[in-house]
Amino acid sequence: MSQSWLQRKRKAELIDLAQKARLPDADGLLKDDLVEMLVNHLNSNETSFAKHPDFRDYYGRNGSPIKRERVSPSAPPTVIKSTRRRTLIKEPSEERMPEPSSLVARTPVERAPVDRTPVERTPVERTPVSRTPRAVPRRVSEVIAQVDIPASPAQLAEVADQSFQVVKSKATELWDRTRIDELKEFIRENASSVATIQTIILLIEAVGLQWNTLDTTAMFATPPALSSYSDSPHVMGPNGWALLTAGWWAPATLWSLTSWVLPLVFSYFFNLTLRTNTSRKSSDNQYPADPLIFNITRAILAYSAYRETVNTALVPGAWGPFSESSVARVGNHVPGGYYGLQISSLVGILVSLYDAALKK
């Protein structure tokens, strides 16, 4: 335990030991050189540093030698005797057999005969015993599945919602097949214009005029199946032969001239939409015939032709080549009469102004 004890020390501890051993210049040495110098110095000065407490472990011993005990030769050796196990065999002893005893003669005893008559046995009726079958254990889930348990409100609501969704999808599919939405959008797109509104007004006037001008006549007899639903013996309808007479053509021609032919000619030539002052000039802002001029012309012509039909006491005068009866028939048979013609013209004027304001 010399050099290895020093090798386990740190360099700072070695420097401290070197200072205690009075070694000069120990700080500038490496650890291995310092260990070698300490070993040489401590070995050469063992008498001086052996009793020093810091170097006691360096000069110490790990332990004393182990003493082993020796066996003295005078002791006699012990001898181990092995004893064998003896088995004793016992000889069989002679046993005497018992002597046979003398037999005693016995006389047979006579027995009375036994009357063995067959005894009739009544059959015993056995009633079948009914055994109840043993209950077989079953799972709780199987038993619950067989029990008719009423559904909860949440399940009923879910089933109702699913049924409603199925019906809704079927109804939507049928509705899409009818293409009513497409037809609706088509009508809406084409009806949202001044020309469509003006056309509808003219159709109402024409249908009302023809309905009131054509006289109704009997077309054919009422069928027996429909006689209980009708008091008339004949089915009435418009008189088609009136279309070949002047009584129909004269009012129809007069209404056509004053309601759409002459107004259309004036609005075509006096079209104010051709010269717009807007910065955006496009074909959407222009019409072949000015709707405002068209309705103003209609109002003026209706005033000049049918103003006297308001007073039923007076006979209206003729208008150009048309007779008084033709003027009176148009003024009285058009829906609303003279005021109906003026109201339709006023509606056309307002729609034309509104459309022009939207396009500015």
From TrEMBL:
It comes from the Eukaryota. The keyword Transmembrane helix applies. GO terms for cellular component: membrane. Keywords: Membrane, Transmembrane, Transmembrane helix. InterPro entries: Put_GTT3. The chain crosses the membrane at residues 248-270. This is Uncharacterized protein. It comes from Pyrenophora teres f. teres (strain 0-1).
